[in-house]
Amino acid sequence: MIYTRKPIDILRQIPNVKSNKSILSVLIILSLSSLVYATTEEFIKKPRGVPKSKASLYERKGPNWTCLDGSGFIPYEAINDEYCDCADGSDEPGTSACPNSKFYCENVGHIPAYISSSRVNDGICDPECCDGSDEYDGKINCPNKCEEFGAEYRKRVKEMEILRAQGVNKKQEYIKYGQKLKIELQNSLDFVNTDLNAAKIKYADREAELKKLEQLEKTKSDSSHLPVKEYNERIKKYREKVKGLKDQVSLLQGNVDTLSRILQDLKNGHNQNENDITIIKSAITAYDEFSNDNNNRGLEDFNEQDEIDDELLIDDHEVPQVHDPEPLPFYQEIWETIANNVYQILGLEESENQDRINKPETSRELQAAINAKEQVEKDKKELENKLNDINTKLSKDYGKQDEFAKLDSECFEYDSGEYTYSICMFGAATQKSNKDYSSTHLGNFAKWSGAQSKDDPNYYTQQIYANGVRCWNGPERSVKLNLECGMDNEIISVVEPEKCEYHLKMKTPAVCSDNSFRDSIRHDEL
Ligand code: MAN
């Protein structure tokens, strides 16, 4: 290459040149230089550090050349003269003169690359420039390793291609799953909505029925409710009466005994062969005495018994009513006590009268209405929860083709030594200490953030989990989850570049695409 610093320095003065003499000398020099450059075709086509694709920008069209950003124009020879003229560094693509310039390594046999121009001729063989073109000043010899690197790269690409294809297949399964799920959710949304509307109507009916029944019972109860005390008194009275009846029975039994004895005496003392007037007289006297003593008391008492029955008879309308929050078991107990007492006293089998004294008919009806209303209310609540779940799922952004639906609520962990990080997809991110097992909330899923627009293929490659526990003297904890193509779902790294800001890298088939692996390899290489 030919670099002539002197004429360039003169040429830099072009805009300020005033005298004709100077102009003449400049023109002479320029025509000489153009002769020189015309012989170096390579330079004209492509200065050092410029890719072929940009060679046209450096085409010689006259004595001067305009910086690519338009910040100035310089003599054509000033390109790559190790002096930085242009603000954008475009005049020094092949030297380290401009700090903001990029040097292009062609890397034939491997992948071309740009390096910062500050690394040109710095005495280090940069692996990114495997052809060694960045070290051309002879201070160091960088052998061309592009063939070797290229072969290794191509081998890796091939392996990765196989994995990528598998990943893409798996992603297809995810897509199928997600789309099926969305259809199912949509369908069940319709069903659940229909069921819920029916349940609401049913609930309103049951509620109205119950209210009506309650009102009815209340009306009855208000007019006829017997206090418990009164029932107890009646029981007491009834017991006394029954006791009286038992006494009557013993009295009558005594009467029967006495009459039997009189007759027995008559029979025993009677002599069939004689006119035995003394025995008959004594029997008549004994009967008169018996008759005077008893004076038919037993019969009178039995008549009284009818009155007792009437008095103690409990009308249907006197049955205790259910109005208090838990009245039924209480009254039921009372009723059972009453029934048991009466049955015991009368010596009857409980079952014979169970239907009459058992739980009152109206209470059973009321309880049935309460149960029915509660059941419908339960069904309604379940349907409402179901509807909520469905709507929440339907509103989630599971990716362009619903490929992330499969991962919803799946949790993945990564042990970094001090902490175990976990992410439950579309849920929460957590940091758990491996020392004391204390857990810190790092945030909840907030949004996709791989790019500004959903149309950008990178949009679904990053998630943000936000609003975690606030850092002491700092921001709320948050997580950036970067996704890259992999056969399995796994977190592969966690870093905390800023306090309480966590960057997680995760592999997943959900982001595999036709070029995802090539991109990631290239990214690793560069
Ligand atoms: C805890 C962890 C760390 C974090 C500090 C900030 O120790 O959550 O990740 O950097 O708190 O105080």
From TrEMBL:
Record flagged with keyword Signal: yes
An example Gene Ontology CC term for this record: glucosidase II complex
InterPro entries per the UniProt record, alphabetical: Gtb1-like (IPR039794), Man6P_isomerase_rcpt-bd_dom_sf (IPR009011), MRH_dom (IPR044865), PRKCSH (IPR036607), PRKCSH_N (IPR028146)
Domain (MRH): residue spans on this chain: 409-514
Coiled-coil intervals, chain numbering: 196-255, 366-393
Keywords: Coiled coil, Disulfide bond, Endoplasmic reticulum, Signal
Any one Pfam family match given in the protein's UniProt record, by short name: PRKCSH-like
Name assigned to this protein: Glucosidase 2 subunit beta
